[in-house]
Amino acid sequence: MKRKSVIFQIDAFTEIPFKGNPAGVTFASNLTDEEMQLIAREMNLSETAFIGTSENADYKLRWFTPTHEVPLCGHATIASLHFLNELDKIQKRNKITFETLSGVLNCPVTSDEYSMQIPILSMEEFDGCNEEIIESLGLERTAVDDKIPFILLENDYLYIYADSLKALKETAPNFSLVKILGEKYGFKAICLFTLETFDTENFAHSRFFTPYYGIDEDPVTGSANGPLMLVLEKLNFIKEPHKTVTKIFEQGDIINRRGRVKVTHYPETNELYIGGKAVTIIKGELFL
Questions:
Q1: 0.90 surpassed by pTM
Q2: Best exposed site among 83, 107, 179, 288 by fewest CB in 10 Å?
């Protein structure tokens, strides 16, 4: 007898269908690791989330790209909260906890927004060859300020500042070379960001490249936008180290997947949260 489960496709960090970042979400009941990976490959989205039972939190949550399980995914977590909400699994609770590979994550829920806690990661100035990486991105050399270092996080995300939206728009990465250089210098993804934005009220715009995980460009990346706040603080673009800071970051506009991520850093407790909206695009049934 075939097993059957509901599966949704949800656009996260947006209220507009076909914008933001799409994620698949389903329940993990009785699924093997191999089956979850096959489902993620079949969905062929940047991530598919699998919600299961947990003894340490409200639910267990795992995320798979078409080729790998990943330790953290922002947009698929926001999508998972929306999935549970639409199935009346959240009800009147104002917080859900998920057991994940990155620890237990607190996820506040309000009437108009989903949020999730992002782990605080250590970071350091990158000591690889900047010139090779700039060339691999097809980035104009003059768009990169040599006085502003590249920043590498402990999760192997590399952050690179560019001086304009024009530079981000004209970037044309050689993804095969980006992957090779990542293996050479120890990074798995590149977050290219600028302080020039499409909407004047927002603070930064980014693009995110991760061929290592089988995704050339991710539309709107929660796990990159959250730490971006701390990178901006480290580089002195945000100069309020002892105050709670909330900023809106943009991503996806350049590839027609406009998304917005609200990021808040609480320095007194050293907690970091990302938030956004979500909209369901497809509801279906999964048969195995």
A1: yes
A2: 288
Q: Judge if 96 and 45 occupy the same domain.
A: yes
Sign of CA dihedral 12, 264, 248, 170: negative
- Residues 257, 127 share a domain: yes
Determine the 3-state secondary structure of 121 from DSSP.
coil
In which residue ranges of the chain is pLDDT below 70? 1, 92
- Give me the pLDDT at residue 87, please: 95
Element (H, E) at 224: helix 222-234
Q: Which residues are catalytic?
A: 47
Q: Identify whether the C-beta of residue 21 lies closer than 8 Å to the C-beta of residue 259.
A: yes
pLDDT for res 250: 98
Where in 123-177 does DSSP place strands (E)?
Answer: 123-125, 151-153, 157-161
Q: Which domain holds residue 49?
A: 4-118+276-287
Residue 1 has a pLDDT of 60
The strand pair at 245-251 and 204-210 is best described as parallel
| Tokens coding 141 | 């050399």
Same domain membership, residue 128 and residue 217: yes
91 with 128, same domain: the answer is: no
Determine the Cα angle at 230 with ends 178 and 240, to 5°. Answer: 145
Question: How many CB atoms are located within 10 Å of the residue 230 CB?
Answer: 22
CATH number at residue 102: 3.10.310.10
Q: What is the pLDDT of residues 256-283, one digit of tens each?
A: 999 999 999 999 999 999 999 999 999 9
Do residue 53 and residue 69 come from a single domain?
yes
